[in-house]
Amino acid sequence: TTMSGKGMGRPLLHYVREIADEKQLPIFLETATESNLSLYELFGFKVKEKQTVDKDCTIYFLWREPQILKT
């Protein structure tokens, strides 16, 4: 089954982003769902590359640099 549309995306991104920033690690992800790009951009991801696999499938490769935690 899919977890799409179940409200898991934001909490998971918050959690992963928090750990990555704490450890000062970048995050890489990929998606073939263009409508997800705006959510990922809200979390600081930038599209680094996109690759068209066929006329109906484009894969987006995203990257987020770690952020300095405020103390």
The level of helicity is 25-40%
Low-confidence stretches: none
**Structural category:** alpha+beta
- According to DSSP, the number of beta strands is 3
| Element order: H for helix, E for strand | HEHEE
**What is the end-to-end distance?**
41 Å
- The residue-averaged pLDDT reads 91
Q: How much β-strand is present in the residues?
A: 25-35%
Radius of gyration: 13 Å
What is the tally of helical segments? Answer: 2
The neighbouring-strand order within the major sheet is 1-3-2
Q: Using the alpha-carbon principal axes, give the shape.
A: globular
Main sheet makeup: 3 strands, antiparallel
Give a written overview of the molecule:
- It is a single chain.
- This protein has 71 residues and is of the alpha+beta class.
- Helices cover 30% and strands 31% of the residues.
- The protein has 2 helices and 3 strands; from the N terminus they run αβαββ.
- It has helices spanning 9-23, 37-42; strands at 27-31, 46-54, 57-64.
- Strands 1-3-2 form a 3-stranded antiparallel beta sheet.
- A hairpin with a 2-residue loop joins β2 (46-54) and β3.
- The relative contact order is 0.22.
